[in-house]
Amino acid sequence: MAREERNHVSSGEDDREEQEDEKMEQFFALLRNFREACNKRKHELRQRDHEEEINKKMKKNKTSKLGPGEEQSSWVPRFEWEDFTAQFEFRRPLIVCPAPYNKKEDKKKLEDDDGLDLNLTLSPASV
């Protein structure tokens, strides 16, 4: 009888372990299904966003290019020569900015103007 009780107890433990294993497998199967559903939904949303972007670009291209049967603007800009030669009256006097001053360029200009060396220093070549 002791053997039967031991077998009965061990088979009861085996049943519990098997039930726990089945529960864990079901739990992990639920997790996998949930992840797959999330990934599928993300993919669907990305695909929908991509399609919307393509549709927006196509609509933008259609509106920017006038095709046959679409209305064109009735106003066409036209310029006359007088538009560019008319005198303008300013409310305030114009601000005239002075030219930038560069010492090196001024020295070169002075030397290049006459071609004369106006340095009054004595050099060995001039003696």
From TrEMBL:
UniProt keyword Protein biosynthesis present: no
The principal localisation class reads nucleus
Entry keywords, A to Z = Nucleus
Report TM segments: none
| Ranges for region Disordered | 1-22, 42-72
Compartment(s) where it occurs, according to its Swiss-Prot or TrEMBL record = Nucleus
**Amino acid composition bias (Basic and acidic residues), ranges on this chain:** 1-13, 46-56
Q: Which family does it belong to?
A: Belongs to the NPR1-interactor family.
Name of this protein? Protein NIM1-INTERACTING 1-like
Source taxonomy: Eukaryota, Viridiplantae, Streptophyta, Embryophyta, Tracheophyta
